[in-house]
Amino acid sequence: MKACVIVFPGSNCDRDLKVALTQSMGNEPNMVWHGDSELPETDLIAIPGGFSYGDYLRCGAMAGNSPIMREVVRKAEGGTPVVAICNGFQIATETGMLPGALLRNADQSFVCKDVDLLVAADNERFVGGYDRGQVVKFPVAHHDGNFFADEETLSELENEGQIAFKYATPDGELTEEANPNGSLNNIAGIYNKAGNVLGLMPHPERLISKELGGVDGKTFFDNLVHSIG
Amino acid sequence: MKARVHISLKNGVLDPQGKAISNSLHGLGFDSVLDARQGKTIELDLKDMSKEQAEKEVDRMCLQLLANTVIENYSIEVID
Amino acid sequence: MKARVHISLKNGVLDPQGKAISNSLHGLGFDSVLDARQGKTIELDLKDMSKEQAEKEVDRMCLQLLANTVIENYSIEVID
Amino acid sequence: MNKITQDIVAEHGLTEGEYSQVLDILGREPNLTELGIFSVMWSEHCSYKSSKKWLKTLPTEAPWVICGPGENAGVIDIGDGQAAIFKMESHNHPSFIEPYQGAATGVGGIMRDVFTMGARPIANMNALRFGSPDHPKTRHLLGGVVAGIGGYGNCMGVPTVGGETNFHSSYDGNILVNAMTVGLADTDKIFYSAAAGIGNPVVYVGSKTGRDGIHGATMASAEFDDDSEEKRPTVQVGDPFTEKLLLEACLELMATDAIVAIQDMGAAGLTSSSFEMADKGGVGIELNLDHVPMREDGMTPYEIMLSESQERMLMILKPGREEEARKIFEKWELDFSVIGKVTDTGKMVLTMGGETVADLPVAPLADAAPEYDRPWVPTPKPAKISAEEVQQPNDLREVLLKLMGSSEIASRKWIWEQYDHMVMGDTIQRPGGDAAVVRVHGTDKALAITTDCTPRYCYADPETGGAQAVAEVWRNLTATGAKPLAITDCMNFGNPERPEIMGQFVGCINGMKDACEALDFPVISGNVSLYNETNGQGIHPTPAIGGVGLLEQSSQMMTMGFKSQGDQVYLIGDLTGEMGQSLYLREIEGREEGAPPSVDLKKERSNGDFLRNAIEKGWVTAAHDVSDGGLAVALAEMSLAGNKGADITIETDLPLHAALFAESQGCYVVTVDPANSKQLQDLAETADVPICLIGTVGHNELKIENALTISLDELGKEHGSWMPSLMAGTAG
Ligand SMILES: Nc1ncnc2c1ncn2[C@@H]1O[C@H](COP(=O)(O)OP(=O)(O)O)[C@@H](O)[C@H]1O
Ligand SMILES: [Mg+2]
Hints:
The complex is a heterotetramer, with one copy of chain A, two copies of chain B and one copy of chain D. By secondary structure, chain A is an alpha/beta fold. Chain A is built from seven helices and eleven strands. In chain A, the strands form two sheets. A nine-stranded mixed sheet of chain A has the order 2-1-3-4-11-10-9-6-7, sandwiched between helices. Chain A has a two-stranded antiparallel ribbon with strand order 5-8. Chain A is globular and about 45 Å long. Chain B has one domain (2-79): Mth169, Chain: A (2-Layer Sandwich), CATH 3.30.1280. In chain B, strands 2-1-3 form a three-stranded antiparallel sheet. The radius of gyration of chain B is 16 Å and the shape is elongated. The N and C termini of chain B lie close together (5 Å). The relative contact order of chain B is 0.35. By secondary structure, chain D is of the alpha+beta class. Chains A and B meet through loops of A and α1 and α2 of B. β2 (33-46) of chain B pairs antiparallel with β2 (33-46) of chain C. Magnesium ion is lined by residues 434, 476, 625, 627 of chain D.
């Protein structure tokens, strides 16, 4: 399997994503510079976390205008799977690949900790390693992860099974305390309509071994590789 | 010439910063504050051109980069 | 009544956001942009009071919370 | 050009004696630019004039030390051709004036010190001291500092993995913000700052120069008074995004062999960087200031030379490599400009607009930097306070709860959750333990990192306090199973012109020296911050110590949480029952009195070596040192970390409150599987280390016989809620 990781000025989870993908794929992904206008042949595009362009103006806004993103959007429209994590998720909403927007966390602070996530919909490709309704643990680390969408979009996301993950208690309850950033409906990650683009604030690439404190992230990438193969 | 772009959150979009500001103001005893909203201003120095041209140009900048119209409104003021 | 506070960086203070915005606009081909600076606007809904009183009150808010006068300037506009 | 008057000289912080030396060196009057250069080069911050004499006495060598103090950061060998490079630095005054930007630029500065030597930063730490929790400024300062540290470090993508935080009224007007960075490099790819190669180009890279923080270095060396806040000195604004690009660009260029020497522009910017490079290399430098990238119009040579704009570096390149280097910096969208060349004149010559604006001899200026042997008086030794002199409390349970929720011991989770402590994917011990542990990427090795200092001990008895700070660092590294290798220090003190303060400094240094020698734990880098004083009130002497240790096998790392019900709990070391300066005395009796607990460096070493040995053998399931709050607090912390209680029985001749709450040094609590119990005891006997079985790991409460029973829920609430409620303004 071939994968690419897009690297923007200010990306800082690009290496972590590479490590996670390499662990699951057995070969290294292509690291693609934002200024390139063409993508190498690829079965998966991954947009990493970090602070592209310092998160200045709006998180992801400037990266969304990078030459490479036009190509990423085109490939996504053609069905190539895209996983966009944290800053990647913000970039994906800025380009319109995913609906909604990510606002400043409700309590104004950066938050870095493990969170529990309810797997909220079926999508073999991305969450085939888990069961719907299962609770998994990934870390979050962001300042602007407060998901917002207008009511119409929100109910569409809910009704069409486009919500990938919701912040939850370890028992799967969707409480306010379990929500680290004020996201509407506790939303932590969403799919596009076609289901081939996943954006999520939490970082599966950070929990890929026992030494790091958990393996739910490894399951995520193993499944991705297995299903895309 | 100069242009100023005001960007504010659309009605109905939760404004965490504004909310935090009004909470803090209340905490400081400013009870006269009913609500607060936070927006952005971007000031641009531009090469000389006609006012209309400048407005058009800045509007394109807003659509492409400066504002996110999913959540934000913007208005443009050209000053010369 | 309403008041609007404009907050901008003092002259000579580095404005990383402005710098990144102008670079990005250039990258998008907006060559007419010479420089960009980013500021904040805070809109306040206030209980009714006299204009002077409002100005005084908001000024105190700026000094105490809204502006960081070490690096920022502010101006107040009271609208009723 | 301005005539130099006495007032101007005084404004530049030079004494009459120093100024007459300037005249001697030059054989003429300096112009303003030259005077400015002298003033920053001879400031306390750059010249270490009050501290040098004493710093020289610290041990700096060991077989594993590659580069000790003197460069941008210290370097140690961690095997396999790899080196760890680290340093700690203060940003106290700027953080008091503008907490967010002050702390942020402090983090930016220390990271540059590390990556300028060729290392990729892999971990940040922060040692913070604030005024008393109810001081009206504390919340604002704490909130701003933490946001600033996070704002910069998070954006850089370097995890902030730990630190320490104290509160005391002596810091009400002078908070301390000390930041430490640890980086990783190959031993054959370390970059130094000595300029060399006559004719080689001098290159400026990074951000443009503006009028930022002009005279910041002299500000950091002057005492505060009430109107310094009103003066609103220009503070620097950090641009972590640019620094991230600078980091990547520098590392990319460093992978080639184009660089001869490199130095970051820190305090006193272009002045100190160029002088240091020239002085170290024994060469001259010629700079054309017209070529310095500038952010503002009309900057004078004085302003250009003294600007403290951040995110800039100065390099000497090999001849003909300019274009290759320029391409890399342009790819990263950074300024790149050849601004001068290396000369054989031994002089620093600056030109602008075709005119010579400064012409100074390098070596005489550097060699003549003042060095003072300031008068000092030793701090009188306070009397010890024995257990018998402290009344038994009615309710030991209440005491433990109160300590767990006290400002010194309460959880710092509110802080570290605002720091990205996991990015780079190698943090295997997150904040909250004795030391953070970060893997050496792609190897089985890991580095343990901690910062410690107990200022109340240093205030009562600087010598014991200095030794204790080093010993506690060593102990915290040891508790993770790591072999402690070296330390960096950040010496924060009041006004050295007062003999009592100078006495504190000397005392702390002497104590540190003893501990470093006894523990084979050399100092490889450091920083001094003096004049931390407001209206004549000095801070508690605070020699913050940052230490790094090595775990050969990251899988052997130890943590403090109780693991399995039924594990046996042992105490290593002797409880001394000394109550002076304990948190018990302060929090329960409201007394900050007496001598701090004594530090026995021989026992410290044998107890620690024994524990490390036992961890390596795989017998130990949890380990934690005894520090603030004593044995009972250590047990409570282990319970909370593992979410398991314990059943404890302490057999001792001491009164129970002294056994539980005295802050006996050199002690650890460990747990072992009962199957390994005998071997542990045998090893202790062979090593002549005192060890005592005190209980077993239990379920959901901490029980100490004849003293207390507390559920973990209640302990956790006390421990966890103090800082959030302080910051929410709801603290009682
Ligand atoms: N400012 C801070 N930033 C990050 N972590 C911190 C900070 N202050 C304290 N901590 C963490 O809280 C824990 C407890 O700190 P401390 O009481 O100083 O530990 P110890 O007694 O073992 O030296 C440590 O893991 C430390 O790294
Ligand atoms: Mg400890």
